[in-house]
């Protein structure tokens, strides 16, 4: 029999089709071609090829560099001198449009072409997370940028076009309906019950310990109760914070530690699967809100959404989150 569960933070539903249940080995993709070279001559992100990218926005590292942040050469949105959000709005009959003002950046995570994020040492991972915070803080000063999304696409199924390890950041001049709905549902829960819905989930998960994958002093990683895909993972700070901009250096170090740990677990169990991860945060001007709670969501790309899922907005998942947590924890001692 199938099970239907609701995500109380979004009110979305997931169908768990247990008849279709799969074991970890059933999700293992065709062995990813191992990248042997540390340097590729035509890769714009390799050390020595800095001239192939736009002028860098941030550099971390003294000898050469460890992290570079550069504007995306083919941006979804780009800044325009003198243009403002209000000035860019236009009506075409009943339709609204605006200029594509924003920022699209690439965080080059390592100078080495073949260095997997899951296999980085903790210092390298900390550099990545600290660069996220630096660029987030800088862009938050621009009042025209209402939302900043930091994300990582790993593998072709996740939408990556360059294999050199990198993350991306996009700042938009509006808050999309999808994000507004998440904020609205969190606000509604707080208005109804007087608690942050994410804090309530976190408290319950720690207490029951059925879906906890790992934790450290600052954060907890668990498989969400209504996971939308197999091996879906949420990483959330133990202390209530609505916006990523509030994370101090200690919490950023803990974030790097737990993100590295969970990615290594997925790497070992599923043999380096394609995945996306996203830092889901309230907008910077909402820092301090009591109803929202920033977090990281990891979404392995192990299957494809089909017609029912697209048409209904629901997901069909073949792995219960309890099984996901158990498998990942059991493997931790063997990696």
In short:
This protein has 335 residues and is of the alpha+beta class.
Report on the structure:
This protein is α+β, with helices and mostly antiparallel strands. It has one domain (3-81, 96-332): HIT family, subunit A (2-Layer Sandwich). It contains seven helices and 15 strands. The chain has helices spanning 24-27, 122-139, 177-193, 197-208, 249-270, 307-312, 321-332, and strands at 3-7, 12-16, 58-60, 67-71, 89-92, 95-98, 103-108, 147-154, 166-172, 212-215, 219-222, 233-237, 275-280, 295-300, 315-317. The strands form three sheets. A ten-stranded antiparallel β-sheet has the order 3-4-7-9-8-13-14-12-11-10, with helices on both faces. It has a three-stranded mixed β-sheet with strand order 1-2-15. Helix 2 packs across helix 5 (249-270) and helix 5 crosses helix 7 (321-332). The longest helix has 22 residues, at 249-270. It is globular.
Strand order of the largest sheet: 3-4-7-9-8-13-14-12-11-10
**What characterizes the major β-sheet?**
10 strands, antiparallel
Instruction: Determine the number of helices (DSSP H or I, runs of at least 4 residues).
Output: 7
By helix and strand content, what is the structural category?
A: alpha+beta
Instruction: Give me the CATH fold name.
Output: HIT family, subunit A
Count of domain modules = 1
Shape: globular
Mean model confidence by pLDDT: 91
Helix content: 25-40%
Number of strands: 15
- Tell me the series of helices and strands, N- to C-terminal: EEHEEEEEHEEHHEEEHEEHEH
What is the CA–CA distance across the termini?
Answer: 34 Å
The fraction of residues in strands falls at 15-25%
Q: Please write the CATH class name.
A: Alpha Beta
Query: Roughly how many Å is the radius of gyration?
Result: 20 Å
């Amino acid at each position: 029999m199938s099970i239907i569960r609701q995500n109380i933070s979004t009110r979305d539903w997931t169908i768990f089709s247990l008849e279709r249940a799969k074991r970890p080995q059933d999700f293992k993709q065709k062995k990813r071609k191992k990248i042997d070279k540390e340097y590729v001559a035509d890769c714009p992100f390799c050390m020595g090829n800095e001239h192939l990218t736009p002028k860098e926005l941030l550099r971390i590292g003294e000898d050469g560099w460890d992290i570079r942040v550069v504007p995306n050469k083919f941006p979804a949105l780009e800044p325009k001198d003198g243009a403002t959000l209000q000035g860019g709005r236009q009506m075409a009959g009943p339709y609204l449009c605006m200029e594509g003002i924003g920022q699209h950046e690439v965080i080059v995570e390592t100078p080495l072409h073949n260095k997997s994020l899951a296999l980085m040492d903790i210092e390298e991972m900390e550099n990545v997370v600290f660069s996220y915070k630096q660029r987030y803080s800088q862009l938050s000063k621009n009042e025209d940028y209402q939302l900043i999304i930091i994300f990582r696409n790993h593998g072709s199924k996740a939408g990556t076009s360059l294999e050199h390890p990198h993350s991306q950041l996009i700042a938009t001049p509006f808050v999309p309906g999808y994000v507004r709905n998440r904020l609205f549902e969190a606000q509604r829960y707080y208005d109804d019950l007087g608690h942050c819905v994410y804090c309530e989930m976190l408290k319950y998960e720690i207490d029951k310990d059925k879906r906890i994958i790992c934790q450290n002093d600052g954060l907890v990683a668990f498989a969400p109760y209504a996971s939308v895909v197999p091996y879906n993972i949420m990483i959330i700070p133990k202390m209530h914070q609505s916006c990523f901009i509030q994370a101090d250096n200690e919490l950023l170090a803990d974030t790097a530690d737990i993100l590295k740990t969970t990615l290594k677990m997925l790497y070992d169990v599923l043999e380096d699967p394609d995945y996306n991860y996203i830092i889901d945060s309230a907008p910077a001007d909402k820092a301090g809100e009591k109803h929202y709670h920033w977090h990281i969501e990891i979404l392995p790309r192990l299957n494809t959404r089909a017609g029912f899922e697209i048409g209904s907005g629901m997901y069909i998942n073949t792995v219960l989150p309890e099984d996901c947590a158990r498998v990942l924890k059991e493997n931790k001692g063997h990696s």
